[in-house]
Amino acid sequence: MTDMIVRAISFILPLFAFIVLIRTVRSMFNGKSQTEIWGYIQTDDKVLRITHWENIIGRTRSADIHLSNPKVSRVHAVLIRSAKGQWRIFDIFSKGGVRVNGQSVGVSGYPLNDGDVVNLSEVSVRFREINERQRSEIEARRIVTWRNVHPAITLLYLSIFQVFLLLEHCFSATQETLPEIALGFGLLILLEWFCYFAMRSIRRTGFEVETVAFFLSTIGLSVIATSVPSEMFRQMIIVFAGVVSFFLLGAWLRDLDRTKTMRLPAAVGAVLLLAAVLVLGREQYGAKNWIFIGSLSLQPSEFVKVAYIYVGAATLDRLFSTKNLIVFIGFSAVCVMALALMSDFGTALIFFVTFLVISFMRSGSIATVALAVTGAGMAGFLMLRMKAHVARRFAAWGHVWEDVYDTGYQQTHALSAGASGGLFGKGAGNGWLKDGFAANTDTVFSLVCEELGLIIAICAVLAIVSLAFFAVRNAAQGRSAYYSIAACATASMFLIQLALNVFG
After folding, report:
1. Contact in structure between 350 and 305 (CB atoms under 8 Å)
2. pTM score of the predicted model
């Protein structure tokens, strides 16, 4: 009878996972609002809209304010609006210079007011700022495509998925671990509904990204319940801390000026964390990337990932600063070198790819990225020569079945376990990979495939991919380059981490 119930649940779970995924993706990519308008640039023959708080003015086609006159540099100037509503224009090392009402403008910028005449080389334009009344009228006319997928219904489907998953664990868990597992799932359900109503209280209508995050947290909680059930309560503390950080960081990032002032302290803090790991860290699974404080274990590189994006993103007025770019490159080099010394090459790769994304978005130069890749290739070659065990692991990739008892042991076991789960899985807690090495870390994807089935595993993968595409899609709508760069960098970090977990 128990086997029949577990089997029935294994067919029900993929259905609800698929429904949650489809509803969230449909809602994320269905709604689209018209572009915001913050002012205008008047030329002799046309009026150009200012649609961002940070705008590149130049001859290049990718410029936010495109001027085709050959006397204008490809990237001539940057026009920026502060949170207080003050506009400022910056000369970005243009050939012909920038003048406002006859006054020369430097890299430190010059304030702009409604009606000011701006000379870009020999091209004269007029800046027009919309007032609050005009902005209210424009906002009233803006058409917003409302979501036709109610987030509460999607969250209800997710809660049902979680209840069925908990029920499946009830049949496999021991009497000692079942209370902790039930408490963990119960707290997660309460937390997600609390977040939903909290968002509604501040008039946030969408809850798609949060729903995806809670769906992935559910999969993670199931993995913990299977492999290390004694860690359930601590895992819920981590989830709760993540939710609190989400709200705090969201509120903090709304003030861009305040955000920029903390970039240096964030960089210093990240370097100190990495230094602490090098001194106090303990090796686990071949990498010295954990710090243990009593029974509490921390992996500081996860915090450094957030700090890295926080520091790496930049506003347009700093984007073209050589000093700013050099500081970021130096910070990146310190992070990657520290991770290499810890033998945490997976995280080092994540940082490097994120560095490439940020570098390209900051410079727009393929040559810069190619140079960075070449340098990294040389460093990687030297590292493989110095770290023989890493070289062996690279050599084994793609040939794991040739030596299933040594170099291919972990990968072949993971592949076998994942394949044995089929489309619907063996049921939560009923697999054998959970007792293997690094079941809840390196081989987590195979563990999900084995116990929950390939369908749910693919849904989890697609959920992460959808978050990445959603971030990139909305980056173009960002009011500041800081948010756009941060969104794309986060997306790249998600995708590389996903690739390492699935294919590594």
Report:
1. yes
2. 0.84
